[in-house]
Amino acid sequence: ELKEKFLPQVAEGQMLSGAAFLEPNADPAFSNLNTVAVKDGDSWVISGEKSFVLNGSMAGFYCVLCKTQQNDQQAASVFLVEANQPGVSVVDSGEKLGLRMTKTSGLKFENVNVTSNQLIGKEGNGFKQAQTTMDEGRLSIASLALGTAQGAFDRALDYTKQREQFGKKIIKFQVTQHKLAEMATKIEQARFFVYGAAQTVVRGKVD
Prior knowledge:
This protein is an alpha+beta fold. 37% of the residues lie in helices and 28% in strands. Strands 1-4-5-8 form a four-stranded mixed sheet, with helices on one face. Strand 4 and strand 5 form a beta hairpin. The longest helix has 37 residues.
């Protein structure tokens, strides 16, 4: 039902989606989740705060990871929360070093009421769902970082071929050559790591 309602709008470019998994000052492995969803009859009431939410303030809905049992830190579920639901507000996440083309923000949930139909997947399966998504997301970030590093190296190499110092191109100096060689080696190492991780994800062998 949720797929039929929301995915066509996303596919047609009419709506953005957002993932609200991370929290301020929280463990990236979600071991100390503070956003909670308390069951109230046939509904759930969500309270908490998320940080670095993809498409924050622009999405039509968010997939929100919540702790669903107070006494069990490992019991978590993912809920679809529409951006215009009462109790949902945007929190400024501040400036970012990179990825400025992607809007991110914090979100605050204050007694947001969602129906049981807004539960994504099975109750209690949230950590597995979030981890699968984060594995792919981290791979994307690593790929972006690799491309940034390669681009920086290419520009640095071109610069050393153009700038002159003491009567010759600075690429002719051994100290410059050593710096470039070290940079190229680290980038190539990163490339092997990223490609290897991508291969692992594609083969479905991530633990």
